Amino acid sequence: MKGWTGNILRVNLTKKTYKKESFTEEFATTWIGGRGFAVKILYDELKPGIDPLGPENKLVVALGPISGIPAPNTGKAVVAAKSPLTGFYGDGNLGTKVAEQLRKAGYDAMIVEGKAEKPTMLYIEDDKVEFLSAEEVWGKGTYATNDWVYGKYGKNAGVLNIGQGGENLVRYAVIRSMEGRAGGRPGIGAVMGSKLLKAIVVKGTKPIPQANPEAMKALGIGDLKKVYEMDKKSGWTKQSTNAVLAWCNEVAGLPVQNFRKTSHAEAWKIDGERLNAARVATYGCPNCTMKCGITIHDKEGRESELDYENVGLLGSNLNIFDLNQVGSLNYLCDEYGLDTMSAGCTLSFYADAIEHGATTGDFKFGDAERAKELLRLAAHREGKVGNLLAEGSLRMAREFGHNSEAYAMQVKGLEVAAYNCKFIPGQALSFGVAAIGAHHREAWIISFELKNTTRESFGPEKAAKVIELQRIRGGMFETLVACRFPWIEEGWSLENYPKYFNTVTGLNWTLDDMWKVADRIYAMIKLHYIREFPEATRKGDYPPAVWFDQSNADTEGPIAGKCLDIAKYDQLLQHYYDQRGYDERGIPPKSLLGKLGLSKEAAAAEKYAKLN
Fold it and tell me: Distances in Å between the alpha carbon of 238 and those of 268, 271, 286, 295, 303?
């Protein structure tokens, strides 16, 4: 078996034991790696109903067959567990040297079980695993922890770590790595914290198994240079992801004031041009020649790395249009190890709930200084307000009542990314049916929708595009594992990715083979969901209710008087189910599961939800 090491490292923190386990070529080609490995491992090994923050939960770090091999943007790893935020399978990817180092240590994935007795750091070097004390940095933020690790092991080490948010079990705590990389929006950092696992450090010296290493080296390095030249010509990295902010503001798709508004006259103050002008440094992931991490000095003079999602949700969505203040809020999220998207939506929901009388408090839209203090309270679960904010917007809404759940901007418990879909049906659908909750990562259809279709359409072409993008973004890129930006931003052909896969594995796959694995993964995540929520219906695939509320429609601009139509959205959702082959509840039937090679899982799922 080439292209995979064939090994998984299993670590038990309770017993302080570890072992190397092998997997078959059939397992490898069924799931590829990354998200595929993670979803299969967690489905097989977790019992339904376990506490996501209990010792029975497991943390999976998974890589793909091209992870860590020099080629465009291959420095990514997937982190996954049962989500403390959503209650079912959750994952995320992040740029990290672990992608290369863990594979060089001889593993394609690692599974962390149990709970340590005291704050612990795992140190992995080839076949050696050590359980070391992390008490010196317990209670410290991610920057100090990263520096502490680098001081011990050097900057070439692969590092995953958590901040105070993970330690204190904030349900949207993330895992951090390198200068500004973060992943695991559904609270995967809190799972690390629940295990008293402060950091994972990896160093490896072995060659990564490849069918044609010399051919892959020439191909990968040559393509890195080509993507670099494409970026120089396009100039995308001048504004990076934040280039989209001005466009979202223009087309009434910007989150403003907890998504109540879709544009703002002062949005230009935090747009891509202003971000580029304030740039003091640029960072990126390993094996990246189009680095997207633009760093500025925040209000306190610290370096803060920004992209569109955190500017949109910590900036315009809080009615904060001072870029340095947005930088400060982003810095605190990174330091504490909090997801910037969920943090921004949770703060905006809190301000909205106060404004609408669902609760009382002293936080208002536009108050950056109070927002900083609230992030500190949330990260440390300090006091009643800190504990509430640490739970995320859905649990807060259920605590507040007064119909506030209608404007808690989330799907299945995961807060919405920074695209206001008050009248953008296809992107609203993509949030509704995203595998892990409202994430833009899996089907960013908004550009296609507004440039290539009629905005008013709720037709089947939009459902088809969502599925196409899920297969590419949530399937292929999340299993290989690689960043999607060369394809999205520079037009790097998708055909390059099966070429990389075939060169390292010696197989002869096409994109259609990748799509079948992607469909298998999406069906498997649905099975995760229904066994945790057997009474779930299609309503779980709906975006926030406020987007259907005519009283919340814009009063001016390109979508004045318009909002999503609930009956038309329901039909759009049915188009998605029909094209996926799912039943009217959004559940894959036994016949489809059999075609996807999931007959065993289908039989097990019968006890949770009757399959057609």
Answer: 16, 12, 19, 12, 18
Contact 254, 316 (CB under 8 A): yes
C-alpha distances out from residue 122 to 50, 125, 133, 166, Å: 24, 10, 9, 16
Provide CATH code, domain 7-203.
Answer: 3.60.9.10
N residues, the chain: 612
Express each pLDDT in 486-507 by its tens digit.
999 999 999 999 999 999 999 9
Selected from 2.40.440.10, 2.40.50.100, 1.10.599.10, 3.30.429.10, the CATH number assigned to the domain covering 421-612 reads: 1.10.599.10
Take residue 388 and report the two structure tokens written for it. Answer: 């509430």
Q: Specify whether the CB–CB gap between 445 and 462 falls below 8 A.
A: yes
CA distances from 454 to 279, 420, 422, 451 (A): 37, 17, 15, 8
Q: What confidence tens digit (pLDDT) does each residue in 433-451 have?
A: 999 999 999 999 999 999 8
54: pLDDT strictly greater than 90: yes
User: In angstroms, rounded to a whole number, what is the distance separating the alpha carbons of residues 62 and 108?
Assistant: 6
Average pLDDT over residues 97-116: 98
DSSP 328: H
pTM of the model: 0.98
SS3 content of the chain, % helix, strand, coil (to 5): 45, 15, 40
| Element containing residue 285 per DSSP (H, E) | none
| pLDDT of res. 453 | 75
Say if residues 90 and 497 touch (Cβ distance below 8 Å): no
Q: What is the pLDDT of residue 459?
A: 95
Q: Which residues face 200 on adjacent strands?
A: 122, 160
CATH fold label, 235-415: 1.10.569
Q: Where are the domains of the chain?
A: 7-203, 235-415, 421-612
d(CA 586, CA 355): 36
The position carrying tokens 């489809």 is 592
